[in-house]
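Appendix C. Worked example: hydroxymethylpyrimidine kinase
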Amino acid sequence: MKTPNSRPVVLCMSGHDPSGGAGLQADIEALLAQGCHAAPTVTALTVQDTVNVSDFRVLDRDWVLAQARAVIADMPVAAVKLGMLGSVEMVETVLEVMSQLPGVPLVCDPVLRAGGGGSLGKDDVGYAMRERLFAVSTIATPNLPEARILAELPQGSADECAEKLLPFIEHLLITGGHGDEAEVHNRLYCRDGSRHTFTCARLPGSYHGSGCTLASTLAGRLALGEELVSAVKSALDYTWRTLRDAEEPGHGQYVPRRLPLDFSQ
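Step 2, the predicted output written as structure tokens:
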């Protein structure tokens, strides 16, 4: 007998990664692991592998709007997760979608660079996200290099970037791990002045899709009704475990293991 879906629905507006390490596949797997239902809306197509990205194409605005509207008309969306947008026009598209979802938490993962360093959008995309999209976002989850781009501080510390960005957004999680420190420091900054630092052991190697995993997991925890600081901790803990258990399917970065090998677990 079929039963109504009790899993919260998370609308994911992200790019497609054919390697399966990042993008919408990362979103879907991470949300499944949280007990959520992922509703993927494709914003862009990429040519990439576990080494780097070589090309991308942003989809037509009307096509993306049609995907999102179909989901919104059919399902009760409990949270929205953003990944690769790739153009200023797509930023405006997201704003139009969010106008139909008042009060729904939005997790913005400002994907501006692939894990291998390749660009996934022009610099004006970061500016548009900061100036327009952050205002409707619950939280943004940049890594430190992305935070520096958004804050226009090429050598800025996490604290300096947060000071520049908090006027635009209420909550900001700047993730670490891009230096050579023994421990990774992930810092949550809130506009009310409160700060929370979450530390974890540094793992060897580099990873493809860690940011997507974190942001989609966080969206899932918020969709489940978890309080924001607790949801951040839950998302960081889960993401660290996926990196600890990561696999090396190609010739480049490790891919997080977001789902158990044995689905009976």
